[in-house]
Amino acid sequence: MFKYFLRRLTYAVFILFFGSLIVYTVIRFLPTSYVENIARQRSNLPGAKSYSQILANLNSVYGLDTDIFTGFLRWGKNAIHGDFGYSWQYNIPVVQKFKEVIWYSVFLNVVTLLVETFISIPLGILAARKQYSKTDYAVTVLSMICISLPTFFLATLLKYIFSVKLGWFDLYGIVGRYYEQLDAWGKFLDMAKHLVLPVLTLSMLNIGGLMRYTRTNMLEVLNTDYIRTARAKGLSEDVVVKKHAFRNTLVPLVSYFSYLIPNMFSGSFITETLFQIPGIGYISYYAVIHGDIPFAMFYSVLIIFLTQISLLIADFMYAVVDPRVRIN
């Protein structure tokens, strides 16, 4: 087991290094550059130096005057010591900006996870137990609708119905205009109200895939020999499903949930932007389109790192839910 863990850890480090190098290379070739925008603004000031002179000076200051590999090694050396530099777009340390916004994304995704789990898994199991019934067809249609809806369309539709027509929720933002005048409980309720539509959007987008995944795996388990043996012994259907079938359904679900950690910290890129929630996804979007290399690098490498961590956790979770893995 130790050798297996060591091998997987080596693969993870290898992927992290070359994944970061690819991201750094792509960002260096972005058509939008912070230093170019600043150089253009400063060159238009009275008595300023030429654009090329200012640009060369800024490239030297930010280490962009070297080749890509040398620049990446410089960045990597500082990153290992926890120094990811200053965000060019937000003018504060990258890590500090990350700490300010990450909890909005974590809270949004945790609530979404709870909602989609308590809806998707029971409906998927119900559809599998009643295969080819009206219930099964209804769940299948619902899941296909949820899978097919684009994020921007669903978010716009929900805002049009519940914000424009009914006036129940605000169109944008994480808090209302009177947020600072409320007490602690009032602030919590105000923020929760603003998260209803984003959570509903993300939940509807995710429950379709999870329902189908649960239904498919439950059907495979229900058709195995040991399930038929359990039924032949006279066990009730509830006992067969809950005690025998569901545990084995968890094995493939571990793979599905292994990406929850990176999703939680990467934020919901499109949803946060559409609802203007100041989470990590929304902030990173503006950092990328403005050529903020330090923040974009930190965000991208963080996602690669968390993905590898989640896959390692998933590998060990297999041993928890499946005794055959422990034997092997």
Describe this protein's structure.
It is a single chain. The chain is mainly alpha-helical and 328 residues long. The chain has a domain at 98-283: MetI-like fold (Orthogonal Bundle). The protein has 16 helices and no strands. The longest helix is centred in the middle third of the chain and has 36 residues, at 94-129. The protein is globular and about 90 Å long. The protein starts with a helix and ends with a helix.
The end-to-end span amounts to 10 Å
Low-pLDDT residue intervals, each spanning 5 or more residues: none
How many helices? The count is: 16
Shape: globular
Tell me the β content: under 5%
Helices and strands, in N-to-C order? HHHHHHHHHHHHHHHH
Helix content: over 70%
Assigned CATH superfamily of the domain at 98-283: MetI-like
Global Rg: 25 Å
Strand count, sense and barrel status of the largest sheet are: none
Total number of β-strand segments?
Answer: 0
Q: CATH first level of the domain at 98-283: which class?
A: Mainly Alpha
From the helix content, strand content and strand pairing, which structural class follows? mainly alpha
What labels describe this entry?
0% strand, 328 residues, mainly alpha, MetI-like fold
Chart the SSEs and their pairings:
Blueprint: H1 2-28, H2 34-43, H3 51-61, H4 68-80, H5 94-129, H6 134-148, H7 151-165, H8 184-194, H9 196-222, H10 225-232, H11 237-257, H12 260-266, H13 269-275, H14 280-289, H15 293-321, H16 323-327
Helix pairs in contact: 1-15, 2-3, 5-6, 5-9, 5-12, 6-9, 7-9, 7-13, 9-11, 11-15, 12-15, 13-14, 14-15
